[in-house]
């Protein structure tokens, strides 16, 4: 064999050896003919699909029911916790610590069950669920402080001020729920049954007003946490915690959002206890009173949280010119919904629907904070025209994306327009999916209905004024009464002996005109 042919011989021998190994491991392919073609490994093949980053859908954020909806929405600035990081450890997945659900009948001696009716057993299960939920909540709150707050402070991953902003008044909630748990355990009998809980709840539920400051801080806390996740030290620490068994595959925000979800669950738990409580039971009246108390607290916190969220976003609006400022924005106390949309040129816009005005912005970074720069003049909701566009009715243009999408049906578009004199705007906006689009349409329609109803009520109220004698009468009657009073005062101050004939004729003429004016006003 020639020396120059020796490398080729080795290559052919390696190929034959690989082919023999493949034949042994894959008997089903024994009938196929061997191929001497070199096959490029799949890992080295580069396709266009691998170069295109995945499109992340941003959900619509609605705050009409702030507490009922978790505000743990995904942000564009927040990296995905489950995606691999170059600085993260390549460790095998750890065993997740799961929290098993417990039942009253399984926890305590079941021999007492033969003396209880089926309805009473369900009542004991509901009371036990309330108590067990308090234990789980206390454990999670302590875990959030011990596993997240304290280590990040000790390792200087975040400053104390930043951690106080993110965790808020979390520490003050722990003794609050420990108090309720202690009270429930004190009234529990040795066999595990509980006779009365209504009086305990009536006395304890007003303490939940302290949730006001915690829930109102959540929007600012979530924004700061998302911003800090851009720091690789913070992201690496949170990723390590997520991979640990104690986290139960929950990230930090899931733990911080647990108190809010617990708050809105209290009415459901109390109704379940009441549903299985007999009508002649002493707890019946107390449970009904407790339900009214917690519903009032949740409603009040919901309003204050919505106002806090609205103020947070209003403070982060950037106006390019003074003419963009609108009193409708300043007077808004709630955000109906907001989220990311795209126009027909593919430009990403962040749209806010306040109570009476629609604001179209672009997300920018200002002073190391996420802010929203006004893209166009704010549009009053009462004068806004909404149009639902059929799929394929809008064509993308002005971009490479539009060139490749000419033959496709462009979906999930709707149009908002506004015209007032020389000012006019038209925006074709695209939602992420049909569900998101329908949410936007519903929110805008509801906002228009409320604005129109408020306008009609304001018009009626403006026509109903207070007369000089303190009586509320229609506007026309007020004008008539004022004119009559003015005429009386003029007559009283008039000296008729000094009037001339011309003055009398002028008075008669003015009187006729005044009478006709009065009839017109009436």
Topology:
Layout: H1 6-25, H2 48-51, E1 61-62, H3 104-107, H4 118-154, H5 160-167, H6 170-186, H7 198-204, H8 211-216, H9 218-228, H10 232-243, H11 252-256, H12 258-275, H13 283-314, E2 317-318, H14 327-330, E3 335-342, E4 348-354, E5 357-366, E6 369-374, E7 379-380, E8 385-388, H15 400-404, E9 413-420, E10 423-430, H16 434-463, E11 464-466, E12 472-474, H17 475-492, H18 501-521
Parallel strand pairs: 2-6
Antiparallel strand pairs: 1-3, 3-4, 4-5, 5-6, 5-7, 8-9, 9-10, 11-12
Q: Largest beta sheet, briefly? A: 7 strands, mixed
By CATH, the superfamily of the domain at 100-315 comes out as Dbl homology (DH) domain
| CATH topology descriptor of the domain at 100-315 | Dbl Homology Domain, Chain A
- State the shape: globular
> What's the alpha carbon Rg, rounded to whole Å?
35 Å
Q: Would you identify the regions where 5 or more consecutive residues have pLDDT less than 50?
A: 1-13, 17-35, 39-58, 70-94, 398-404, 462-507, 511-522
SS strand fraction: 5-15%
Please bin the fraction of helical residues.
40-55%
- Compute the number of helices: 18
Query: Whole-number average pLDDT?
Result: 74
Distance between the termini: 122 Å
**CATH hierarchy, class of the domain at 100-315:** Mainly Alpha
- Give the CATH architecture of the domain at 100-315: Up-down Bundle
> H/E element string?
HHEHHHHHHHHHHHEHEEEEEEHEEHEEHH
What's the count of strands? 12
Structural class: alpha+beta
Question: Care to give the gist of this entry?
Answer:
With 522 residues, the chain is of the alpha+beta class.
């Amino acid at each position: 064999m020639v020396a120059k042919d020796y490398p080729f011989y080795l290559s052919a021998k390696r190929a034959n050896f690989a082919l023999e190994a493949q034949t042994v491991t894959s008997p089903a392919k024994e009938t196929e003919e061997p191929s001497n073609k070199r096959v490029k490994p799949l890992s080295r093949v580069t396709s266009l699909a691998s170069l295109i980053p995945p499109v992340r859908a941003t959900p619509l954020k609605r705050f009409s029911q702030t507490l009922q909806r978790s505000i743990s929405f995904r942000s564009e600035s927040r990296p995905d916790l489950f995606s691999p990081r170059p600085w993260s450890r390549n460790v095998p997945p750890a065993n997740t610590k799961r929290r098993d659900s417990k039942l009253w009948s399984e926890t305590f001696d079941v021999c007492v069950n033969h003396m209880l009716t089926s309805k009473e057993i369900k009542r004991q299960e509901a009371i036990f669920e309330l108590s067990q939920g308090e234990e789980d909540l206390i454990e999670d709150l302590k875990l959030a402080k011990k596993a997240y707050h304290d280590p990040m402070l000790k390792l200087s991953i975040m400053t104390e001020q930043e951690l106080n902003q993110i965790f808020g008044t979390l520490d003050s909630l722990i003794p609050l729920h420990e108090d309720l748990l202690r009270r429930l355990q004190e009234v529990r009998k040795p066999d595990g049954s509980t006779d009365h809980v209504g009086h305990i709840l009536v006395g304890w539920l007003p303490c939940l007003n302290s949730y006001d400051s915690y829930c109102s801080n959540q929007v600012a806390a979530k924004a700061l946490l998302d911003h800090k996740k851009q720091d690789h030290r913070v992201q690496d620490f949170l990723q390590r915690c997520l991979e640990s068994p104690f986290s139960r595959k929950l990230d930090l925000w899931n733990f911080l959002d647990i108190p809010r979800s617990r708050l809105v669950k209290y009415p459901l738990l109390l109704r379940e206890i009441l549903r299985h409580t007999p009508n002649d039971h002493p707890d019946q009246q107390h449970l009904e009173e407790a339900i009214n108390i917690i519903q009032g607290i949740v409603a009040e916190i919901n309003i204050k949280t919505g106002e806090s969220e609205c103020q947070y976003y209003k403070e982060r609006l950037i106006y390019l010119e003074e003419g963009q400022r609108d009193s409708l924005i300043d007077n808004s106390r709630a955000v109906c919904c907001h989220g990311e949309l795209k126009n027909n040129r593919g430009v990403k816009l962040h749209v806010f629907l306040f109570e009476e005005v629609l604001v179209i912005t672009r997300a920018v970074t200002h002073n190391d904070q996420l802010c929203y720069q006004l893209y166009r003049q704010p549009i009053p909701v009462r004068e806004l025209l909404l149009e639902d566009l059929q799929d394929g009715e809008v064509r993308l243009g002005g971009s490479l994306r539009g060139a490749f999408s000419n033959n496709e049906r462009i979906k999930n578009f709707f149009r908002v327009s506004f015209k007032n004199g020389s000012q006019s705007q038209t925006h074709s906006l695209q939602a992420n999916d049909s569900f998101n689009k329908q949410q936007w349409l519903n929110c805008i329609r509801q906002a228009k209905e409320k604005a129109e109803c408020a306008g009609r009520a304001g018009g009626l109220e403006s026509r109903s004024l207070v007369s000089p004698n303190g009586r509320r009468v229609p506007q026309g009657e007020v004008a008539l009464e004022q004119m009559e009073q003015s005429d009386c005062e003029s007559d009283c101050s008039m000296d008729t002996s000094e009037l001339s004939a011309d003055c009398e004729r002028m008075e008669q003429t003015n009187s006729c005109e005044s009478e006709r004016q009065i009839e017109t006003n009436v």
